[in-house]
Amino acid sequence: MNEAASRFEIANKLLQILPSQDLQQAERYLEYLEIPRGTVLSRTGDKIEYIYFLTSGIGSVIATTPEGNRGEAGIFGSDGYVPTSAAANVEASPHEVVVQLDSRGYRMPYPKFRELMDQNRNFSKVMIRSIEAFSIQLAYTAVSNAIHDVTERLARWLLMCHDRVSGNEIALTHEFLSLMLSVRRPSVTTSLHILEGNGFIRSERGNIIMRNRNAMVEFARDAYGKPEDEYRRLMQDLF
Protein backbone atom coordinates (compact mmCIF):
# COMPACT_ATOMS: atom_id res chain seq x y z
CA MET A 1 0.00 0.00 0.00
CA ASN A 2 1.45 3.37 -1.02
CA GLU A 3 1.97 6.36 1.27
CA ALA A 4 -1.24 8.08 0.18
CA ALA A 5 -3.25 5.01 1.11
CA SER A 6 -1.57 4.64 4.49
CA ARG A 7 -3.01 7.98 5.61
CA PHE A 8 -6.56 6.63 5.45
CA GLU A 9 -8.26 3.90 7.39
CA ILE A 10 -9.24 0.91 5.30
CA ALA A 11 -13.00 1.17 5.76
CA ASN A 12 -14.00 -1.39 3.16
CA LYS A 13 -15.95 -4.10 4.99
CA LEU A 14 -14.45 -6.97 3.03
CA LEU A 15 -10.89 -5.89 3.74
CA GLN A 16 -11.78 -5.30 7.39
CA ILE A 17 -13.00 -8.90 7.69
CA LEU A 18 -9.63 -10.31 6.66
CA PRO A 19 -7.32 -11.58 9.41
CA SER A 20 -4.47 -9.12 9.95
CA GLN A 21 -1.84 -11.25 8.22
CA ASP A 22 -4.00 -11.62 5.11
CA LEU A 23 -4.87 -7.92 5.11
CA GLN A 24 -1.18 -7.03 5.29
CA GLN A 25 -0.56 -9.18 2.23
CA ALA A 26 -3.38 -7.44 0.32
CA GLU A 27 -2.29 -3.97 1.45
CA ARG A 28 0.90 -4.23 -0.58
CA TYR A 29 -1.14 -3.98 -3.76
CA LEU A 30 -3.67 -1.30 -2.76
CA GLU A 31 -3.56 2.21 -4.18
CA TYR A 32 -5.70 4.92 -2.56
CA LEU A 33 -8.02 6.93 -4.83
CA GLU A 34 -10.52 9.74 -4.65
CA ILE A 35 -13.13 8.96 -7.30
CA PRO A 36 -15.44 11.71 -8.59
CA ARG A 37 -19.09 11.05 -9.36
CA GLY A 38 -19.53 9.83 -12.92
CA THR A 39 -16.22 7.97 -13.09
CA VAL A 40 -16.51 4.78 -15.13
CA LEU A 41 -14.57 2.03 -13.37
CA SER A 42 -15.09 -0.52 -16.12
CA ARG A 43 -16.87 -0.72 -19.46
CA THR A 44 -18.79 -3.62 -20.94
CA GLY A 45 -16.43 -5.90 -22.84
CA ASP A 46 -13.26 -4.05 -21.86
CA LYS A 47 -10.34 -5.77 -20.23
CA ILE A 48 -10.39 -5.51 -16.44
CA GLU A 49 -7.31 -3.62 -15.33
CA TYR A 50 -8.13 -2.90 -11.69
CA ILE A 51 -10.35 -4.18 -8.90
CA TYR A 52 -11.94 -1.45 -6.78
CA PHE A 53 -12.74 -1.52 -3.06
CA LEU A 54 -14.74 1.56 -2.06
CA THR A 55 -14.49 2.95 1.45
CA SER A 56 -17.13 5.63 0.91
CA GLY A 57 -19.63 6.57 -1.77
CA ILE A 58 -21.88 4.54 -4.03
CA GLY A 59 -21.51 2.91 -7.41
CA SER A 60 -23.75 1.09 -9.87
CA VAL A 61 -23.40 -2.05 -11.93
CA ILE A 62 -25.28 -1.25 -15.15
CA ALA A 63 -26.55 -3.82 -17.62
CA THR A 64 -26.97 -2.78 -21.26
CA THR A 65 -29.10 -4.59 -23.83
CA PRO A 66 -27.94 -5.15 -27.43
CA GLU A 67 -30.19 -2.24 -28.48
CA GLY A 68 -28.56 0.10 -25.97
CA ASN A 69 -31.18 0.16 -23.22
CA ARG A 70 -29.59 0.54 -19.80
CA GLY A 71 -30.67 -0.31 -16.29
CA GLU A 72 -29.04 -0.63 -12.92
CA ALA A 73 -28.53 -4.26 -11.96
CA GLY A 74 -26.98 -3.66 -8.55
CA ILE A 75 -25.55 -1.14 -6.14
CA PHE A 76 -22.32 -1.28 -4.16
CA GLY A 77 -20.35 0.77 -1.67
CA SER A 78 -17.96 -0.12 1.11
CA ASP A 79 -19.70 -3.49 1.38
CA GLY A 80 -18.09 -5.03 -1.69
CA TYR A 81 -15.74 -4.80 -4.65
CA VAL A 82 -16.05 -4.48 -8.43
CA PRO A 83 -15.90 -5.92 -11.01
CA THR A 84 -17.01 -9.09 -9.20
CA SER A 85 -16.40 -11.22 -12.30
CA ALA A 86 -12.67 -10.97 -11.59
CA ALA A 87 -13.08 -13.58 -8.86
CA ALA A 88 -14.05 -16.10 -11.55
CA ASN A 89 -10.84 -15.38 -13.48
CA VAL A 90 -12.82 -13.44 -16.10
CA GLU A 91 -10.63 -10.85 -17.82
CA ALA A 92 -13.35 -8.77 -19.53
CA SER A 93 -16.05 -6.86 -17.69
CA PRO A 94 -19.58 -8.07 -18.52
CA HIS A 95 -21.14 -4.82 -17.31
CA GLU A 96 -20.46 -1.12 -16.99
CA VAL A 97 -19.53 0.03 -13.49
CA VAL A 98 -20.06 3.70 -12.65
CA VAL A 99 -19.52 5.76 -9.50
CA GLN A 100 -22.75 7.60 -8.61
CA LEU A 101 -21.53 9.61 -5.62
CA ASP A 102 -18.13 11.15 -4.96
CA SER A 103 -16.23 8.25 -3.48
CA ARG A 104 -13.00 7.12 -1.89
CA GLY A 105 -11.42 3.75 -2.03
CA TYR A 106 -8.60 1.59 -3.27
CA ARG A 107 -7.74 -0.16 -6.45
CA MET A 108 -5.70 -3.31 -6.96
CA PRO A 109 -4.21 -4.44 -10.27
CA TYR A 110 -6.12 -7.36 -11.74
CA PRO A 111 -3.06 -9.69 -11.84
CA LYS A 112 -2.40 -9.08 -8.13
CA PHE A 113 -6.06 -9.72 -7.28
CA ARG A 114 -5.89 -13.02 -9.18
CA GLU A 115 -2.64 -13.88 -7.40
CA LEU A 116 -4.32 -13.40 -4.03
CA MET A 117 -7.38 -15.38 -5.13
CA ASP A 118 -5.15 -18.28 -6.13
CA GLN A 119 -2.70 -18.18 -3.23
CA ASN A 120 -4.51 -16.74 -0.22
CA ARG A 121 -7.35 -18.95 0.98
CA ASN A 122 -8.81 -16.39 3.39
CA PHE A 123 -8.81 -13.62 0.80
CA SER A 124 -10.49 -15.92 -1.69
CA LYS A 125 -13.10 -16.97 0.86
CA VAL A 126 -14.14 -13.39 1.60
CA MET A 127 -14.32 -12.41 -2.07
CA ILE A 128 -16.44 -15.44 -2.95
CA ARG A 129 -18.81 -14.75 -0.06
CA SER A 130 -19.16 -11.22 -1.38
CA ILE A 131 -20.16 -12.56 -4.80
CA GLU A 132 -22.87 -14.68 -3.17
CA ALA A 133 -24.18 -11.70 -1.23
CA PHE A 134 -24.23 -9.56 -4.36
CA SER A 135 -26.03 -12.28 -6.34
CA ILE A 136 -28.74 -12.31 -3.68
CA GLN A 137 -29.13 -8.55 -4.07
CA LEU A 138 -29.45 -8.98 -7.84
CA ALA A 139 -32.07 -11.71 -7.44
CA TYR A 140 -34.17 -9.56 -5.12
CA THR A 141 -33.86 -6.64 -7.50
CA ALA A 142 -35.37 -8.80 -10.24
CA VAL A 143 -38.19 -9.91 -7.94
CA SER A 144 -38.84 -6.37 -6.74
CA ASN A 145 -38.98 -5.07 -10.31
CA ALA A 146 -41.61 -7.70 -11.06
CA ILE A 147 -43.93 -7.37 -8.05
CA HIS A 148 -43.51 -3.97 -6.38
CA ASP A 149 -44.76 -0.63 -7.58
CA VAL A 150 -42.39 2.20 -8.45
CA THR A 151 -42.69 3.99 -5.09
CA GLU A 152 -41.91 0.84 -3.10
CA ARG A 153 -38.94 0.17 -5.34
CA LEU A 154 -37.73 3.73 -4.88
CA ALA A 155 -38.05 3.34 -1.11
CA ARG A 156 -35.94 0.18 -1.35
CA TRP A 157 -33.19 1.84 -3.38
CA LEU A 158 -33.07 4.89 -1.11
CA LEU A 159 -32.74 2.64 1.93
CA MET A 160 -29.94 0.74 0.20
CA CYS A 161 -28.18 4.00 -0.62
CA HIS A 162 -28.67 5.21 2.96
CA ASP A 163 -27.00 2.02 4.18
CA ARG A 164 -23.90 3.00 2.21
CA VAL A 165 -23.47 6.69 3.10
CA SER A 166 -22.59 8.45 6.32
CA GLY A 167 -25.31 10.71 7.66
CA ASN A 168 -28.79 11.25 6.30
CA GLU A 169 -28.06 13.18 3.10
CA ILE A 170 -27.85 11.34 -0.20
CA ALA A 171 -26.74 13.38 -3.20
CA LEU A 172 -28.74 11.59 -5.87
CA THR A 173 -29.92 13.11 -9.13
CA HIS A 174 -33.26 12.33 -10.78
CA GLU A 175 -31.28 10.91 -13.69
CA PHE A 176 -29.61 8.37 -11.42
CA LEU A 177 -32.90 7.49 -9.71
CA SER A 178 -34.47 6.98 -13.12
CA LEU A 179 -31.64 4.61 -14.04
CA MET A 180 -31.96 2.77 -10.73
CA LEU A 181 -35.65 2.12 -11.29
CA SER A 182 -35.59 1.79 -15.10
CA VAL A 183 -38.44 4.29 -15.36
CA ARG A 184 -38.86 7.75 -16.84
CA ARG A 185 -38.01 10.81 -14.75
CA PRO A 186 -41.66 11.92 -14.27
CA SER A 187 -42.34 8.61 -12.49
CA VAL A 188 -39.38 9.31 -10.19
CA THR A 189 -40.74 12.77 -9.40
CA THR A 190 -44.18 11.38 -8.58
CA SER A 191 -42.76 8.71 -6.27
CA LEU A 192 -40.48 11.21 -4.53
CA HIS A 193 -43.51 13.38 -3.84
CA ILE A 194 -45.31 10.40 -2.28
CA LEU A 195 -42.37 9.54 -0.02
CA GLU A 196 -41.94 13.18 0.92
CA GLY A 197 -45.64 13.59 1.58
CA ASN A 198 -45.49 10.67 4.00
CA GLY A 199 -42.67 12.39 5.87
CA PHE A 200 -40.07 9.71 5.04
CA ILE A 201 -37.69 12.02 3.16
CA ARG A 202 -37.12 15.59 2.11
CA SER A 203 -36.29 15.97 -1.56
CA GLU A 204 -34.18 18.89 -2.73
CA ARG A 205 -32.51 19.50 -6.07
CA GLY A 206 -29.87 16.80 -6.41
CA ASN A 207 -30.18 15.83 -2.75
CA ILE A 208 -32.42 13.58 -0.66
CA ILE A 209 -32.53 13.78 3.12
CA MET A 210 -33.69 10.78 5.14
CA ARG A 211 -36.18 11.93 7.78
CA ASN A 212 -37.89 8.77 9.04
CA ARG A 213 -35.98 5.64 8.06
CA ASN A 214 -38.01 3.25 10.23
CA ALA A 215 -41.27 4.37 8.67
CA MET A 216 -39.83 3.97 5.17
CA VAL A 217 -38.61 0.47 5.98
CA GLU A 218 -42.17 -0.38 7.01
CA PHE A 219 -43.50 1.24 3.83
CA ALA A 220 -41.09 -0.76 1.63
CA ARG A 221 -42.43 -3.99 3.14
CA ASP A 222 -40.68 -7.08 1.73
CA ALA A 223 -38.90 -5.06 -0.97
CA TYR A 224 -36.12 -4.32 1.52
CA GLY A 225 -34.33 -6.31 4.20
CA LYS A 226 -33.72 -9.88 3.10
CA PRO A 227 -30.54 -9.26 1.04
CA GLU A 228 -29.20 -7.12 3.89
CA ASP A 229 -29.86 -9.92 6.37
CA GLU A 230 -28.17 -12.41 4.06
CA TYR A 231 -25.10 -10.17 3.70
CA ARG A 232 -24.69 -10.07 7.48
CA ARG A 233 -25.17 -13.83 7.74
CA LEU A 234 -22.64 -14.57 5.02
CA MET A 235 -20.00 -12.24 6.43
CA GLN A 236 -20.16 -13.18 10.09
CA ASP A 237 -17.93 -15.72 11.83
CA LEU A 238 -15.76 -16.37 8.77
CA PHE A 239 -12.59 -16.80 10.82
Question: What would you say about this model in short?
Answer:
By secondary structure, the protein is α+β, with helices and mostly antiparallel strands.
Distance from first to last alpha carbon = 24 Å
Element order: H for helix, E for strand: HHHEEEEEEEHHHEHHEEHH
CATH level-two architecture of the largest domain: Sandwich
Gyration radius, in Å = 18 Å
CATH topology of the largest domain: Jelly Rolls
The total of helices stands at: 10
Reading side by side through the largest sheet, how are the strands ordered? 2-6-4-5
* Global structural class: alpha+beta
CATH class of the largest domain: Mainly Beta
Mean pLDDT: 92
Sheet bearing the most strands, described?
A: 4 strands, antiparallel
| Helix percent band | 40-55%
Number of domains: 2
Beta-strand content estimate = 15-25%
* Contiguous uncertain segments of 5+ residues: 2-8
Q: Which descriptor suits the 3D outline?
A: globular
> Based on DSSP secondary structure assignment, what is the total number of beta strands?
10
Annotated CATH homologous superfamily of the largest domain = Jelly Rolls
Question: Layout of helices and strands, plus pairs?
Answer:
Blueprint: H1 3-6, H2 13-17, H3 20-27, E1 31-35, E2 40-42, E3 50-56, E4 59-64, E5 70-76, E6 96-99, E7 103-109, H4 110-119, H5 121-147, H6 150-163, E8 169-170, H7 174-181, H8 185-197, E9 201-204, E10 207-210, H9 213-220, H10 226-235
